[in-house]
Amino acid sequence: MYRRILIAIDGSELAARGLEHGLALATQLQAEVAVVTVSEPPISGYEDALGGPAFALLPEYQRAQEATATRVLQSARDAAAAAGITAETVHVPNRYAADGIIETAEQRGSDLIVMASHGRRGLGRLVLGSQVSEVLARSGIPVLVIR
What we know:
By secondary structure, the chain is of the alpha/beta class.
């Protein structure tokens, strides 16, 4: 049924549960697994203390995003190996999460996206946004949401 599963993670405890479910499903289906984490772009319009653009922070921001992605993806590789799965890992820098997840799924020919959701409602969802909702609304392939 599902031969190529893309699991989206962000390093949170909740995402780890999504990873666990995705790996268990992949084991049962003998499916290929790719794990993606997305680093969002720096906030545009951000200014430094002198009122100028904070472009000087960009290299440090990029290094911090890369270090975080490396840590998150290594943890996912370790979890996959423990489950007997070889998972490819992908870091998508400077994209919004939903965009990076959908684009990666399309590029890799994935037939299922697995991701976790906090299940926020009301003001919490409005303030924090919902990347899961965005993926659900825009994805052309099935999405399994873990709560």
